[in-house]
Design a protein that fits this description.
1 helix; three-stranded antiparallel sheet; alpha+beta; three-stranded mixed sheet; Putative transposase
């Protein structure tokens, strides 16, 4: 079974603003319309993205946080 049809799996992408002046990540629960838009105040480096994801997804019930598939920017996330 493909990951994106299993409940509680998340997908996510990075969106970068004009001239790289801002960035946000958009985790989406794959089987529902539940979407978060999280600003990256520290920039788009991997450690900052990980910190924001951990801070915001850590509080979810276990059933809502089974895994995460992240986009690579090539339309395969």
């Amino acid at each position: 079974m493909a990951l994106w049809v299993v409940p509680s799996w998340w997908g996510g992408d990075l969106t970068v603003g004009k001239n790289g002046a801002s960035a946000a990540i958009t985790p989406v629960e794959r089987t529902t319309p539940y979407t978060l838009i999280l600003g990256l105040l520290e920039g788009k480096k991997a450690t900052g993205v990980a910190d924001v994801l951990i801070d915001h997804l850590h509080g979810l019930p276990g059933i809502m946080s089974q895994g995460l598939t992240w986009g690579s920017g090539h339309g395969d996330g």
